[in-house]
Design brief:
This protein has 503 residues and is of the alpha/beta class. A hairpin with a 2-residue loop joins strand 6 and strand 7. The protein contains 21 helices and seven strands. The strands form two sheets. Strands 4-3-5-7-6 form a five-stranded mixed sheet, covered by helices on one side. A two-stranded antiparallel ribbon has the order 1-2. 59% of the residues lie in helices and 7% in strands. The protein has two domains: 387 residues, no CATH class; 91 residues, no CATH class. The N and C termini lie far apart (73 Å).
Length: 503
Amino acid sequence: MQTQSKDLPLIKVIGNSQKFWTLLFFSAFLLVGILTYRDYGISWDEEMQRNTGMVTSQYVLGENTDLLTYIDRYYGTAFELVLIFAEKAFDLEDTHDIFLLRHLLTFLLFALGVFFFFLICKQHFGSWRWGLLGAAFLVLSPRIFAHAFYNSKDLAFLSVFIIAIYSLILFLQHPHWKTLIFHALTTAFLIDIRILGVLIPALTVCFYWNKRGIKDWAYLIGYGGFALFATVLFWPLLWNSPIQEFIAAFNKMSHYPWDGVVLYGGQFIKALDLPWHYLPVWMLITTPLVCIGFFILGLLLCFYAKKKQEVLIFTAWFFLPVMAVLILQSVVYDGWRQLFFVYPAMVLIALIAISVLWDKVKEGRFLRYAFIGIVALGLLEPFGFMVFNHPHQNVYFNAFSGNDLRNRFELDYWGLSFKQGLEKILEKDSSKVIPIYVEHWPGISNVSFLPKEDRSRFELVEDEADAKYFLTNYRWHSKDYDYEKWDSIKVKSTEILGIYKPT
């Protein structure tokens, strides 16, 4: 009876087949990803991420020991190794092909995470319809959707974190050696993507603590032992000195010493000196309003929710990482991408509010359809932005952000729009050789990302005066340049990349 009371009638009118609608949703989602993954450029960190994976793979294969002194050795490499070995399996050598494969596989991992999020929502709320609504909320977050193609660290972490939470719930409900192994493997793989994955074993111990039988404690000890073994196995850096290197990685990555400058509130501020409100403000201005509204309401209505243990897991999922960053004063920059993995918890808490309110209005015909309309309209806003501003969903801001964004906040800080800028030049300039000057590293990366016949037409010059075109994503320089503006890339009315003619 409980499941029926929470069914969403609009979908029920259209059809009542779980398999059909679930298959349709995920087929459409996969199709969109497969049709669009070629549209995204290379981000600032991608080549560094690939280099880290390559150095680690060479260590694994016994080719050298450079990993032990590599500057970025403390980055987790579990998913990077998957990408590197996939690259080797397909025998790819050209930059264009290599990064297209990376984008596709990163998206497919996100799609897997969305599916497991569907399972979490379905299990918690007792209906596949709520599972699809939760999956829709997760997909229709413009920034997360864009990062799902090119961010092999933060989005890979988000995707596997979802799977780890699902395995945690499964292990708590059905302690068994099968669920133990599944949970331990996802825990280890998560930690070996980012060290912050240690949150999962901490949550496991906390929520398993009420188990008192000898067999139950054996399962917990078995989980810890197997997770520890798999963590070392999946992270080659730990093979020689597991404890020493793990502690070093934790200390380094929990206070990552990035001393760059970011634009925040109209001022350029060192990342090490950013105010405490940097993180909450960025979360507030870049999350769809429908999720923010129901999330805040969900926090107030959590005491109405059933399955209290799971609700506690969801709230811990969100609040522990956020509070840890604020209390420990960890360095956060480039918006809140390092904490994207808490967004699914926000969605779950928002769904709690929606489900509680639904129980209140479902009996009245007008109220229930009005409520469905409010939720649908709320999702329509980010959906419309994603469609009309493709592939620049990474520059999404909501109504709380205000105006004059380019002079107040970082926009395309990772320089993905260089790809579209270069393509504009190729389309409009028929010259066989086109000298260009790019302001930042992603400009060079995106030249190498173009197909061979296109990249061969560009000549990268070291002096602006020698360039026919000057391209900038306005990072660390938000104002216009004193050159003739030839073209630009805009999101809504905000310019995220400028193309100038310096001569």
